[in-house]
């Protein structure tokens, strides 16, 4: 059978000729017994959705177009230039001058594992603050690789005072302290000021997760003495998931490049990744793994959009739209899960589940009738909240109005239990 | 500054309103000190290339278009359907009925680490055959996670007899034996028949890397008793890099789901990944990590193209085009690195570096004057070969002619040393 679909749809790259001499009489020696699956002979179907949950958020046409461009090799000089641009774009977004700045070839969890695997050696003490799902994940990752994990725990929506943190630093003497800046499972933006200083005082690295907050809430890596910072591509940056910016300062580099043992993962070993990103000062970049070329195109484009817009404009935009959304939610008679305005994450708003309603029914209704995603809680916040995310490209008052209209409609049409 | 580029270029998704009330007088409390980088205010530039190296290969317009489609959430039912389709597409491409079939959210190295991390526990014996770079990588991965690694080594281009393999299996009693089917660094396709039986006899899992061979050379996972098989998206499948199909049979599942210790990586833990792919029989899929939505769109499309074309047609196409290329290379007076025709990988051809020539100059010449990528060796084969890949979408006689013309031109114009 000739590759019909290719021939009919492949005209744009005509230079790559496809005319194939196919002999139908000859049969390969080895025998295929499993036939082509019927589903694979159907076209790819993707519905249009308002992605107003905690991410992935909608990808702008400009970023989608970047992802649909013909690729080049992952080791071509032009790809290195694109990676250099990405590095500069991340430095701007993170507000850091760290040389050791790059993107992971994977989602935020890849960055999370990379940070822990490279800076902690088996047997070393790690302190993890848990006030939602992300701390739970880091504790599990650090435990698996042999770290001695200590935790500071609050229920979802809670946060830690600098006094609590310093007490735990003094007690557990960790090499690494983890904190989530944007706790998207609870809708909390955690205060950062002063914690980096405490970590320095106690000879500990300060690792911050900004997957849900980057570009949406003020964060200044260098000024706030954050030693390791990572984020994801699919939130306020509005690129498809699959890349994750990360940066290590000199303190972090000193720790991770003076290890006694190799990191347990070859794929996530920063010795190799730093070379792949041209950060190690060596003249040549060696082959380590094949980076997601199209993913890097989209990440570059999304970082370019942020640079054009300006970080402070982006922060202000998220704050204003979030405040508008919060007011609208309260006008509907709903309660916001995070009471203190200053602790509310501007990118992901958590609504306390209204009494008498089944949250799953509300979400299902909005998906069915408004093609709109909002989500429930995650990990410890399941059953406590409904989450609404308006991030980056999605962050506008008209979109907030759409979200509010869908919520109002769901509240009106979903049955309320007679408790 | 208004996001001009977004406003002017974002018309296609007009429903997602972008009108932003930006107040220029107000200033955020925290202060941005690092300005937007100049490079980020320049457009993304990507040259057009013939990717005739060992991969990534050119992506067809149809697959690129799939990657440029608006995304949906990674946990939407429609995404699960796309993942189910991908699973069926991989089962066809691998010729397996294994339920535990899925795609990694990462490149082939992610699949490599996943296979080793899940099936080996610290202290267990692993046997790795090394006849190029891939075995070296697996040995390093297994060593880092605490495996007792034994190796069978040949120089690049060499292969192992079943007798040699059985002797090593009997001696080292490994729980896992690794072999590369398509050794792209040397251009060798390794015989597979009988090895799976030997592994069963010696109570060992048979792990095969088919990153460079899948769809190009016959491989039948179930019939050949391969316990774990993985590949990459960016070779004969012609999707962008960033996804990696993998499959485990019941023997492999029994080993990996009856461990005493947890795998060292949370991200690559098959307990979680099997749930994410709906393979564990549980009614709900939990959030584990955010999969590369666009990457899965492209992988589905590339597997659909293979299903439409037919696996046997694809194998035949690669064989015919490779034979045509090999003859053309010999007609140029060049020597093929792998002498035995039956051991030559149809997707990636290795040419012995012609005497008197600097291989780097030849490659640079073709890139500069023909916009064509061929590559040198990799790992132990560096300085031994030039590699030409014509895979999937790129696999045609007219493309072979283009490659031969570029080679002839480079040989004519690059200076030959007077050795």
From TrEMBL, chains A, B:
The organism of origin for this protein: Astyanax mexicanus
Gene3D superfamilies reported in the protein's UniProt record: Aspartate Aminotransferase, domain 1, Type I PLP-dependent aspartate aminotransferase-like (Major domain)
Presence of keyword Transferase: yes
Ranges where the Aminotransferase class V domain occurs: 62-395
Family membership: Belongs to the class-V pyridoxal-phosphate-dependent aminotransferase family.
Name of this protein: Alanine--glyoxylate aminotransferase
Modified residues annotated as N6-(pyridoxal phosphate)lysine in this record: 235
Catalyzed reactions per annotation: glyoxylate + L-alanine = glycine + pyruvate; L-serine + pyruvate = 3-hydroxypyruvate + L-alanine
Binding, substrate: 387
PROSITE patterns: AA_TRANSFER_CLASS_5
């Amino acid at each position: 059978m000739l590759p019909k679909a290719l021939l009919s749809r492949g005209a744009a790259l005509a230079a790559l000729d496809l005319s194939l001499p196919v002999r139908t009489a000859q049969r390969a020696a080895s025998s295929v017994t499993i036939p082509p699956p019927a589903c694979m002979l159907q076209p790819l179907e993707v519905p249009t959705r308002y992605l107003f949950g905690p991410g992935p958020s909608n990808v702008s046409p400009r970023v989608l177009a970047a992802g649909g461009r013909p690729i080049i090799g992952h080791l071509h000089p032009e790809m290195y230039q694109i990676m250099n641009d990405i590095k500069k774009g991340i430095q701007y977004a993170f507000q850091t001058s760290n040389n050791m700045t790059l993107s992971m070839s994977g989602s935020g969890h890849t960055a999370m594992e990379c940070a822990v695997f490279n800076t902690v050696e088996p047997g070393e003490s790690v302190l993890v603050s848990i006030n939602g799902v992300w701390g739970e994940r880091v504790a599990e990752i650090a435990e698996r690789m042999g770290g001695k994990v200590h935790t500071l725990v609050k229920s979802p929506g809670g946060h830690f005072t600098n006094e609590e943190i310093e007490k735990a630093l003094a007690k557990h003497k960790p090499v690494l302290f983890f904190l989530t800046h944007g706790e998207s499972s609870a809708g909390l933006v955690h205060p950062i000021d002063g914690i980096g200083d405490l970590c320095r005082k106690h000879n500990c690295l300060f690792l911050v997760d900004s997957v849900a907050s980057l570009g949406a809430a003020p964060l200044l890596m260098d000024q706030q003495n954050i030693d390791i910072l990572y984020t994801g591509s699919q939130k306020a940056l509005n690129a498809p998931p699959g890349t994750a910016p990360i940066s290590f300062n000199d303190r972090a580099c000193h720790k991770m490049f003076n290890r006694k043992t190799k990191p347990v993962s070859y794929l996530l070993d920063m010795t190799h990744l730093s070379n792949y990103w041209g950060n190690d000062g060596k003249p040549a970049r060696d082959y380590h793994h094949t980076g997601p070329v199209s993913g890097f195109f989209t990440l570059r484009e999304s970082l370019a959009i942020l640079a054009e817009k300006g970080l402070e404009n982006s922060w202000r935009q998220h704050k204003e739209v979030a405040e508008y959304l919060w007011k609208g939610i309260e006008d509907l008679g709903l309660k916001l899960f995070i009471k203190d305005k200053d602790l509310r994450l501007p990118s992901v708003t958590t609504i306390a589940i209204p009494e008498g309603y089944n949250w799953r029914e509300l979400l299902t209704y909005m998906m069915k009738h408004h093609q709109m995603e909002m989500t429930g809680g995650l990990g410890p916040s399941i059953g406590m909240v409904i989450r609404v995310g308006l991030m980056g490209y999605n962050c506008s008052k008209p979109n907030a109005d759409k979200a509010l209209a869908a919520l109002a409609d769901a509240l009106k049409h979903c049955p309320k239990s007679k408790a």
